[in-house]
Design a protein that fits this description.
The structure holds 2 protein chains of 2 kinds.
Chain A lengths: L2 E6 L7 H14 L4 E5 L7 H5 L9 H5 L5 H4 L1 E2 L6 E4 L12 H12 L4 E5 L6 H8 L3 E6 L3 H17 L1 H4 L6 E9 L1 H5 L6 H8 L2 E7 L2 H8 L11 H13 L11 H11 L2
Helix pairs in contact in A: 1-12
Chain B lengths: L3 H17 L5 E2 L10 E2 L2 E8 L4 H14 L1 H4 L3 E5 L7 H16 L3 E6 L3 H9 L3 E2 L2 H17 L5 E8 L19 E3 L8 E4 L4 E3 L8 E4 L3 E7 L2 E4 L9 E6 L3 E4 L2 E4 L12 E6 L2 E6 L1
Parallel strand pairs in B: 3-4, 4-5, 5-6, 8-10, 9-11, 10-12, 11-13, 12-14, 13-15
Antiparallel strand pairs in B: 1-2, 3-7, 14-17, 15-16, 17-18
Classes of the chains: A alpha/beta, B alpha/beta.
Chain lengths: 269, 285
Amino acid sequence: MAKIIVITSGKGGVGKTTTSASLAMGLAQKGKRTVVIDFDVGLRNLDLIMGCERRVVYDFVNVINNEANLSQALIRDKRCDLLYVLPASQTRDKDALTKEGVARVLEELSANYDFIICDSPAGIEHGATMAMYFADDAVVVTNPEVSSVRDSDRMLGILSSKSRRAEMNEEPIREFLLLTRYDPSRVQSGEMLSVDDVQEILALKLLGIIPESKAVLTASNSGTPVILDRESDAGQAYSDMVARYLGDEVPHRFLHTEKKGFLSRLFGG
Amino acid sequence: MSHTPVENAENSALSSSESETPARTTSIADSVKGFELKAAGFTLPIIRVFDHNIEAIAARLTAKVEQAPDFFHNMPVVIDLSRFPSGASAVGGLPLLIGLLRGYGMIPFGVRGGTPEQNDAAEALGLALLRDSYVRAAKITTVNSETEVDADDLQWQTTGSGVTRSEASTSRKPVNHQGSMLIKRPVRSGQRVYAAGGDLSIVAAVSSGAELMADGNIHVYGALRGRALAGMNGNLDARIFCQDLQAELVSIAGHYRVSENIPAEMQGFPVQIFLDQKILRIERL
């Protein structure tokens, strides 16, 4: 049985797709059979970040509507054999995601994979609720600013009340916090919320802190998950996050300006 | 005990208007069609009858009514029959009781907690039958107040009828049988929790944008950043206790204060909030 992980946030532009791509790649590189699904029907981006946009033939909605089978729609990653991408449809809207259809696709994938990563669209509407409904684990991606924290908090409320696990009265979804676009120098000068500020409100297990980094944009534009850029601070932070998710004890890095300076000198980033 | 009915009544107006604002009313038809069908919560006095000796009840009633005759005039009341002795004589006693109440200027309009025979008798008298779910919530309130009030043939209490549980995310919260509720996970922005007929205890933080409601007290062992409304059924003795006050709004029995009006020296501290002669007071613990 695969573990279903939803990458969600409520707010847009915080790094859900970047995180989905890097987490999926990280898990696959650790030998886990992984599939990453783009739930952002109508605004698909995951294929670009994964660099497989020119190989999309069939998509998630085709599979839901039985117009294609899963093996036709899944795109194998060229860099890692264990990683597959299920792209969203760009020409439909979110209503194409039916609960029964999504359940059937996830069940079918569940038999053949270790991890299914659901890249949620922004918002708390149908697309986002479909992405999180069947989840076992949730990674809540949050930027260190008040509106993102509030939206994450709202999303956590929805996770604990409107998911399948909540409705079936099962053990609740495991929730993790991933703080992205963290800038220690701005935290120090009081312009940005600190990890502690965010944790005071959300009180979740902290899966990682991804520093604000130019490497993320570069990686996105070139269709490479940033985790593959091992030289960059963001890439390393994502690697740490994957290790932590799999149960390793890894200390948090990139929390302080001094440390960042030291590492950048060391790695030339 | 003797002056409670008056307080309850004044408070009921406040609490019903206050409690209707957070989406308690549900609109079914739109106004374009000439009318609107809505569900609203009203706080009503209830008369619980423990004895079928009408003379004894009449004597007690007279004593009560004399204390505040205006208050009882045209006052709608619900009759709680859950402790009224059942049997043929009891069914016969119901019309007498109705007549008695009407004689004092009250408007008995419904019964609850009756046996099927009593309900038939009530229907024959043109009274409404109120659903059982309200009885459960109200019984708890009675148990609480009985500890303070001497056992009495007649007991006045107020209860919110037509109270709907909030649609968002209250469904699987652990509820115990006293109507009190204990929540161990954080209450997130956008979630609403309502402890009908009891206390609400939360051993986690309450986020801004979350809403807590309880007929009894509210205890928050963590930061309270959302809204907290205690004494929803008009209980003026309800209190709010929290470890770290950062609330957006606090209210007891409809007497509320928003964040802006909470003194800065109370913000961030463990406090209790209560009504002192209908003035909301915040005190450090």
